[in-house]
Amino acid sequence: MNNLPIGIIDSGVGGLTVLKEAIKQLPQESFYYLGDNARCPYGNRDKNEVIKYTVEMADYLMNKGIKLLIVACNTATAAALDILKKKLPIPVIGVIKPGSLAAIEKTKNKNIGVIGTKGTIDSGLYPFMLKAERDDLNISNLSCPEFVTLVENNEYKTDKAKKIVTKVLAPLESKNIDTLILGCTHYPLLKPFIQVALGSHVKLVDSGKETISDVKKVLDQMSLESTSNLNQNQIKLLTTGNLDSFKSIAEEWLNLHDINVEKVILGSIKGEESKENE
Ligand code: DGL
Q1: Which one, of 226, 231, 234, 159, lies nearest residue 190 by Cα?
Q2: For a Cys staple, 224 with which of 175, 219, 232, 245, CB 3.0–4.6 Å?
Q3: Is the CB of 40 under 6 A from ligand 1?
């Protein structure tokens, strides 16, 4: 039994889609959520840079005290999950494997689409995981870098977003997919537009739900569940970016009001700021 919070990290607001599921499935647990909005998007960055930023977020939450870390970002999972697993003395859970297994369960025609950031798609990790489980799948990959910006700018419900989503997903229309993995945690906020663009016959896999089922198993296996009987999550939201913009997306998406968001300055952001001031 362990009453420390669970840490959740993402490049920005995307991991809130995982936090939302965590709140639903783990009502006794407390959470620290850290979004690196100041340096979002990670998707077009060099792998070593993504590793550095992700490790900084993990170290920050380790210093605060957490019992388990969820890397709620596909790009960071692809770049840094193995490194974090070796480095940290607590369980570390990523979002790519759970999403892959859920897609395999859902597909009937064996044609699976994967959308994600450039970093995630270029890593080839989804096809690798999917094929390792089943080698008779046809996988269509597509990177959608425009989507993260729409979400971070709080434009995810606009007509502009609808048009961009329809245009970017057009190459998938001819692929006869029956299942699509939303391989970026920002994308579930665009789910209604994605569903309309691809048609209701395509099942959308949002890895948040599957990831939290994994977290539940690990908490149980390692006897790490919280003993709190408050039955109300304690949630602390932290961002490296703009407080107001983070707060408004978080309140709407999580359906919570008056949440407190704190600003955090991570190691190399301090360095970057002082270089700029020289
Ligand atoms: N939410 C992140 C993911 O799941 C990526 C967004 C970004 O490009 O920073 O990949």
Answers
A1: 159
A2: 219
A3: yes
